[in-house]
Design a protein that fits this description.
Length: 248
């Protein structure tokens, strides 16, 4: 091979080693900082977020398109190449968003159905006991309502703890995430700290989204999509941990 002349002009490095973008989080970890800074890596990120936020105002279809947008970010993050915030392509993202939107809807309906059955059973118990003795009904009703409220709190906490897996499975293509609850539990138990980091990251993302309230609500057109992008990035990182990197 001929040696390079010292008088030759410099050659640009096209290997990507000189990129100023942060590398993807290593497999087995969740980097909250990388997710929070991800939207702002794109120079016109606020315009892209504002466009997404405006489309979100469209009833139902706007949220479905948002899900498709998040699905793209999730898949890129999971593959380790989420380097640029995508622009919302309403038609394509609307098509891609119906399945995750349906999955989230069915999961929440399951939760509300369980709560409805729970409180319905309490009211039925009070009615049955009340037919026998009003005093007994008051006592049983008070105890039953207290237990129902405690169980309600436990379920809400459980739903908040499960939200990461709910997002992972929904964006990953599952139509009914609760059907994989056992697999989800195994993934969380196998990687508890990355999961906790993802939960914390989603909480911080929700705080970012609420910052738009400081601008009389108008700022939410930008901050809410930015928060959704951070969430999708985080869940994509968690998916790399739980399942391994995506394969083409």
């Amino acid at each position: 091979m001929m040696e390079r002349s010292p008088y030759a002009p410099p050659v640009a490095d096209v290997s990507g080693g000189g990129s100023d973008r942060p590398p993807p989080a290593p497999l087995g970890t969740v980097d909250i900082g990388a997710a929070i800074s991800y939207p702002m890596q794109t120079p016109d990120w606020w315009m892209r977020c504002a466009k997404t936020g405006l489309f979100m105002l469209i009833p139902i279809a706007g949220m479905v398109a948002l899900m498709g947008w998040m699905k793209q970010i999730f898949e890129e993050s999971r593959a380790g190449n989420a380097t640029e915030l995508p622009e919302l392509d309403f038609g394509r993202h609307l098509s891609d968003g119906w399945r995750p939107f349906g999955a989230m809807f069915l999961t929440m309906m399951t939760f509300y159905l369980i709560m409805g059955v729970l409180f319905g059973s309490v009211m039925a118990l009070i009615a049955i006991v009340g037919a026998i003795s009003q005093d007994a009904a008051n006592i049983v009703g008070g105890i039953a309502m207290l237990l129902a409220q405690l169980l309600n709190m436990v379920m809400i906490l459980g739903l908040n703890a499960y939200i990461v897996e709910q997002w992972r499975l929904s964006l990953g293509g599952s139509l009914y995430p609760p059907a994989s609850i056992v697999k989800s539990a195994k993934a969380v138990m196998a990687h508890p700290m990355p999961y906790v980091m993802t939960v914390v990251g989603l909480f911080l993302a929700s705080m970012v989204g609420s910052l738009g309230f400081l601008a009389c609500g108008v700022g939410m057109i930008v901050t809410l999509p930015a928060a959704w992008a951070v969430m999708a990035h985080l869940v994509g990182q968690w998916s790399r941990v739980a399942e391994g990197p995506a394969t083409a």
